[in-house]
Every structure is written in structure tokens, then in C-alpha cells.
Amino acid sequence: MYEKNGNEIFHAKIDDKIKFCNSKNKITHTDFFTEPEIIKIEKYLNSIKVKNYFFFGGFKNANRKMLFFYPEKLTLEMAISNIDKVLEIIRITLPNSQKDNFEHRDYLSAIMKLGIVREKFGDIVVFSEGADFVVQKENSSYFKDNLSKLIRFKKSNIEVLNISEIHEYIPETEEISIIVNSMRIDNFVSEICHCSRSKAEEILLEERVMINYETISKNSNIVKPSDILTIRGFGRFIVKEISRKTKSDKNVVILIHNK
Predict the structure, then answer these.
(1) What are the angstrom distances between the C-alpha of 214 and each of 145, 228, 229, 231, 236?
(2) Using one digit for the tens of pLDDT, what is the confidence trace for 118-134?
(3) How far apart are CA 76 and CA 209, in angstroms?
(4) What is the pLDDT of residues 184-198, one digit of tens each?
(5) Which residues, in sequence order, are bridge partners of residue 115?
(6) Is 216 helix (H, G, I), strand (E, B) or coil?
(7) How many CB atoms lie within 10 A of CB 41?
(8) What ranges in the chain are assigned the alpha helix state H?
(9) Domains plus CATH for the chain?
(10) How far apart are CA 242 and CA 223, in angstroms?
(11) For residue 172, pLDDT beyond 90
């Protein structure tokens, strides 16, 4: 989103927020970031040794999160306690005749029809009776008023609620184990995709593999515990741990697969 000529614009926007926080001695925040963007931001903040910050998207398992900076006079706990002054939720409760008929993409397309850029709202949590949208408090009235004008939500109840009332999304996961000769990425691709090493190399060359949301094409890249592996067409896998060695000195690795 902010990349141009070596991330200059990206860094400048982050730097502006830090300067505002320090000069005004106030909590400040950005719009919503995706998981790949968050990883890049954390690398940059670590490189410039900034510590007074946190990411939050409305609930624990949120994919899209805002970046908050807070002054040194506050603790992290004090800063987090101010979240409800920044974030709210828009809840759409569908009429009985429409329950279970709408999916995530239906709600997303509805918002995009309003001309709102994706950075201005967070996750959409879908449940049987409707959905919750995480929004910045300053924009909540606009969301509510304009969503109510859409034909698809004409008979729905739309309300603004405190962020604490969100229907928290709990991702469906499964734990799997694989056996790899070494921690090279091609071994992981071969085991996860149930294919030969040569086919795994093809998948890498096709740029279908990411480690921590960075595209990997070389088969020699090493995978580490806590890394996030994404293979297009197969899903996302978190490397939980190397549980043990086999008698033939191979690694038994536990992965968490996000379905």
C-alpha cells in the first residue's frame, strides 16, 4: 500500500505518526493494515528501535489491525484501555428471511459500493444472523447511514456498538505433522503439497510460496519455528515446533493449518 522507491512513502507515514505522538504527547493511530504489511512495519520499527506501539484490530484473532503509538508517560495497559475511544463496530442484523444467505464477500462488496477504501475498515465477522464490521469511531456514522440505504440491507437492523460487543471470530485450524530431511523450504513444499522435490521446485519458481508473506523462489531458504508458510492453492501454515528427530535423523515438524 505504501511502497514506492524503497518504501520511502511507507516509512515517512509511519515516521509522521511517531513524531505526532512524541510532540503532542498523545496516543495516535494509523488506518488498518494487512498481515503482510504488519510484518514489514514491525521490521522497520525494530530497525529504528521504537517500542511504544501495538497493533490491534478489535479482537484477538483479527487479520487487519491498526497501529497505535503511545507516549512514554503511559503504560501499554493504559494505552489499550483507550481502544473504545477509537474503534467501534457496525452490526448488521438480517431479517429472518435472509439469515444464513450472506457470505463475507457479500458484505465486503456492499461496503466497497459505498466508495470506502479497504484501509478504512477492519475485519468483517460473519455469523448466522448477520455481520460485525470493525470501524474507526470517527467513521461509524457514515457507515451506518450509508449501509442502511443499500437495497440488500433495506430490511436489516444496522446499529453502532462498543468494540467489546463484537462477535469474535475463532479461526478453524488443524494440527498436522510432517517429516522433512532438512528445514529447507523445498522439503516443506514437497510434504505439504504431496509432490516430488522437482515439482516443489516448480511451485517455488512459479512464485506460489511465501515465508512470512514474502515470496520465496529459492529452494535453499531455511524454515524456522514460528514462520508462516503460505502456498497458493494449499493454504497457510504456521510452523509450531520441531517436535523430535527420527531414528534416521529427520525432523518431525508440527504445523498449524488455517483452513
Answers:
(1) 39, 10, 9, 11, 13
(2) 999 999 999 999 999 99
(3) 35
(4) 999 999 999 999 999
(5) none
(6) coil
(7) 20
(8) 8-24, 35-47, 76-80, 104-113, 140-147, 185-193, 197-205
(9) 8-82 (3.30.1370), 87-165 (3.30.70.330), 173-258 (3.10.290.10)
(10) 11
(11) no
